[in-house]
Amino acid sequence: MIEGLARLTHTERLQLMKFVCSAVWSDLEVNAPEQRLVLSLALHLGLPEEEIRQVQRWIQVPPPPEEVDPNLVPSRHRALFLQAVEEAMKADAEVDPPEAESLRILRELLTPA
Q: Torsion over CA of 99, 6, 35 and 28, rounded to 10 degrees?
């Protein structure tokens, strides 16, 4: 699992899950390996039951784009968010072109110049 998750506040953990769910939707489908990784991460983060149900809903319908704003990610956690998103996109052992493009854009937005 990803190192450093314990440093995230509760709010940051839920924000991370929005990013991860949005990432697995970048190719317009969420397959079984991606679903398993997302739910495993939510459980590892220790999210309460209601928030795990919310994550399950995001697996069915992605979070609203305005709630997945890279500017909301604290600079101290940007590398962690990128790592989680990349791991989610690789869950099915294939990063297709839409996922690769989404990851490229996210890297640009979260990596300091």
A: -30
User: 96, 106, 93: which is closest to 27 by C-alpha?
Assistant: 96
Which token pair is 4? Answer: 């450093």
Q: 12 with 74: CB under 8 angstroms?
A: yes
Residue 13 has a pLDDT of 95
SS3 28: coil
| 14, 51 contact by CB (below 8 A) | yes
Q: What is the mean pLDDT of residues 3-10?
A: 90
pTM of whole model > 0.70? yes
For 8, 30, 48, 109, the CA distances from 69, given in Å and listed in that order, are 17, 21, 23, 10
